[in-house]
Amino acid sequence: MADGNSSDEDFSDDWLLYSRRPEWSDLEPLPQDDGDNPVVMIQYSERFNDVFGYLRAVISRQEKSERALELTKDAARLNAANYTVWQYRRDILKALNADLYEELSYIGRVIVDNPKNYQVWHHRRVIVEWLDDPTSELALTESILDMDAKNYHAWQHRQWVIKNYKYVTLHVAMMMFAHGDASALLRDARPVSRVLFDDELHYVDRLISEDMRNNSAWNERFFVLKHVGFTPEVLEREVNYVITRVGLIKNNESPWNFLRGLLQQGTGKLAQFPSVIEFCEALYNDGIRSPYLLAFLVDLYEEQYFDTIESGGNEAEAELYHQKVQDLCESMANQHDKIRSKYWRYIAENFRRKASERATAGNGRNGV
Fold it and tell me: Helix or strand or coil: residue 36?
């Protein structure tokens, strides 16, 4: 079934309209009210009108029964994106004190058929919250990401699980062990609170190894690191990790963005790791002209220029950085990023203006 679209494809040939079922003879379906003068009448199928007519009747009299629960299942098959269907289904589940693990299994199958449907993922989240049991969620999202490694809904759900269940209760930890998901935890005697985050790094490392252009995996790696903490050791490790990947595919925006995100931590300086400067300049000297490399060098040399001026450093060194910024911006505008030539000329002009203002302010302080 296509994500969120009305469809009759999933129904068997012997499926019977509710209007022909004796057990539903006590209920009169309610037609859809489009008003007196509808602008555009949607041509629903007979099955769609039948199911939703009975659903409106059930909701109207607030019937919460097993047959109503089955009705919501048919309604969801016809339109999995209908919020009211899922909300009323949850109301029925509560009223019947239904088996939520059975519901979890059901919604898992629905998600496989509708992996980019917001409502089905939301329903899954609510059921997990009611159960307070996330043991199946990483496996589910991994299976969906195997289908599409950049599925936003799957990544959002996965991050929600990891963030909200990072402090796994002993009860859940034992359940994870029973399902084979926490054997490493008990074998290695690792703190329970670190399991999900630690294991996630291994997972995203595999995804990045399979596709280094998978921006979603890089984003997930940063998400994990942010919640674990950017200690000096973590920063150094991750800087080495990312520059190794950049070295394999130079013209890959994802790791360059990841590198910038890392360097915003620590001192917040692009130049805080000499290895990064050496790596980038070596790429440039080897003739690499990736626009992501050049853009990084523009910001790096601008930072070094102003740091040199602020510290009262060598004027010739500062002037060298100044000239590098100008040359790189010109190179980007004329050769390597011509579609944004006006942007790069603006960056160059803005840098010259800030440098001039800084020089004027410095002369003023010196009494010139």
Answer: coil
How many Å apart are CA 145 and CA 150, to the nearest integer?
A: 7
Residue 283 pLDDT > 80, yes or no?
Answer: yes
- The full set of domain ranges for the chain reads 9-98, 192-271, 289-361
How far lies 258's CA from each of 154, 242, 264, 274, in Å? 21, 8, 10, 17
Rg of the Cα atoms in the chain = 29
Dihedral angle over CA of 163, 165, 168, 169, nearest 10: 140
Residue 325, C-beta contacts closer than 8 angstroms, at least 6 positions apart: 298, 301, 302, 305, 348, 351
pTM above 0.85, yes or no: no
Percent of the chain's residues with pLDDT above 70:
88
Classified by CATH at the fold level, domain 192-271 comes out as 1.25.40
**Measured between alpha carbons, how far is 201 from 149 in angstroms, rounded to an integer?**
16
- State the catalytic residues: 116
CA angle 107, 110, 112 (to 5 degrees): 115
**CA distance readout (Å), 250 to 8, 209, 242, 291:** 48, 15, 11, 10
- What φ, ψ does residue 366 adopt, rounded to 5°? -85, 0
